[in-house]
Design brief:
Helices cover 51% and strands 8% of the residues. The chain has 123 residues and is mostly helical. It folds into two domains: 49 residues, no CATH class; 58 residues. The chain starts with 10 loop residues before the first strand and ends in a 5-residue tail after the last helix.
């Protein structure tokens, strides 16, 4: 698995219609500045021609990914604690608790898959 790289946040609304920009960039050469794009867009271009609603969502993408990763770690630990609290010494759990664990496992796997897709990895 390769190391995940994207333009660091925060991302924000740029100049003009539909631009989302960052004050940072990924790469060895600042291609955005070659044609005066920094001044034109007001930062390093993430995307352009986005609708106002999409601008808000796209701008929050780095924060949403970081929070999703933190919440996934928390959910995994909470699931472990729940299992330990309800399992008998031989590992047996009743049907209701098994259903709760099944639902939590599905949520955890869904979160893992979304995070992997956001990072360009296979789930």
């Amino acid at each position: 698995m390769s190391e995940y790289k994207s333009t660091p946040g925060p991302w924000r609304r740029g100049k003009g219609y539909g631009a989302v920009v960052s004050d940072s960039f990924i790469g060895t050469k600042d291609c955005n500045d070659k044609y005066g794009s920094l001044a034109f867009y007001g930062g390093h271009l993430i995307c352009e021609s986005a609708s106002p609603g999409n601008i808000r969502l796209i701008s929050e993408a780095p924060s949403l990914l970081a929070i999703a990763e933190d919440l996934l770690e928390f959910a995994i630990e909470e699931r472990k604690c729940f299992y330990q609290s309800v399992a008998s010494p031989d590992g047996h759990i009743d049907q209701d608790e098994a259903e709760t664990l099944r639902i939590e496992d599905e949520r955890i796997e869904s979160a893992r898959a979304v995070i992997a897709r956001a990072k360009g990895e296979s789930a």
